[in-house]
Design brief:
Strands 1-2 form a two-stranded antiparallel ribbon. A two-stranded parallel sheet has the order 3-4. It contains four helices and four strands; from the N terminus they run E-E-H-E-H-H-E-H. It is 33% helix and 11% strand. The protein has one domain: P-loop containing nucleotide triphosphate hydrolases (Rossmann fold). The chain is α+β, with helices and mostly antiparallel strands.
């Protein structure tokens, strides 16, 4: 887990997960535990009334890789207060998440530095 950064009083950024390369074929119990911890923290943020928007970056990838199951995330979506915006990102969103969402946008890569041999950059890709 990364340390939380507070850009108080207007923005809180928290990152959950392990500081390692993720391989869909080799999902570990530690990766699943870290994802579940992040989901629990997201649940707390939703009900806290401290936030107008909560962004769950790459949560769809966490589902696709098996760190979380879509039923858990659907439960979270259903517990969202009406005045809060919940944004969930990541490729390959399960159809159940797409069906439940109010807005779905699909982005298509046109050009990416990785395709040109540039490795992931701190603060951009990770």
């Amino acid at each position: 887990m990364y340390a939380a950064k507070k850009l108080a009083p207007y923005l809180t950024i928290e990152q959950y997960g392990l500081d390692e390369y993720i391989c869909k074929v080799k999902v570990t119990s530690e990766q699943k535990a870290a994802a579940r911890h992040g989901l629990a923290k997201a649940r707390q943020a939703l009900v806290s009334t401290h936030y107008d928007i909560v962004v769950l970056d790459e949560i769809n990838v966490a589902i696709n890789y098996g760190f979380l199951v879509d039923e858990e995330v659907l439960e979270l979506m259903n517990s969202k207060p009406p005045q809060l915006e919940l944004v969930m990102t990541g490729r390959k969103a399960p159809q159940s998440i797409v069906d439940r969402a109010d807005l779905v946008t699909e982005m298509r890569e046109v050009k990416h530095p990785f395709s040109q041999g540039i490795r992931a950059r701190i603060g951009i890709e990770f």
